[in-house]
What we know:
Layout: H1 20-49, E1 56-63, H2 74-77, E2 81-89, E3 96-99, E4 102-110, E5 116-125, E6 128-130, E7 135-143, H3 149-156, E8 165-178, E9 181-182, E10 186-195, E11 209-210, E12 212-213
Antiparallel strand pairs: 1-2, 1-11, 2-7, 3-6, 3-8, 4-5, 4-8, 8-9, 8-10, 10-12
Amino acid sequence: MASAEIPLAPAKANSKPRFPILSFISNYFLLFLAIVITVILVALITWFGMHPLRPRCTLGKFYIPTLDKASNATQTVNSTAISIELSFWNRNTEKKVYYDKVNMTFSYYYGINNGLSIRIGNTSIPPFHQRYLRTKDHVETIQTFGVPWEDVRMKISNGSTTPAIFRVDLETHVRFKNGLWKTRRHELRLGANFTVNDHGRMMSVDNGLRLHTIF
């Protein structure tokens, strides 16, 4: 005896999900995840796109013992060295600074109206790095050469109207570190003129002499 075929029930065209609450949560989670990723990408682009601030350099001390009229020590009077104190300030937030070797040159302006200049000393600072919002001090004594001391003493005397002008120049390259990556090298050239009194020290400089960018 042949068995009768039982017709299958037609499938519903618009069947609802078994757990609608899970579908709702999944959709909103994907939307939330997309927003978070977008915010992170925008923050990263803004972070890496910001132009870093160049570090500032200040000459806090410049002293020539042989010009100090108040000193009677023979060793001090006969010394033609220069004592300096230099400060580097990384004024960036969340960015480290990596310095190449820092080359410094000291010069003196001589002659009528200080129209000529002569190099009197130089030194260099080995490469170093600096954390954000930190200051690094460098103290050193530099031996001078070729200084026309009589010209200097004449200018710092009370009867002279022409000041004794010296100059410091600094040159290096710096890189900035944003998170895991370092930027390309940026040239840093700074310099400034200053006068010296009859005690062998910089004149009229409060909180140090800031070196300015040379273009």
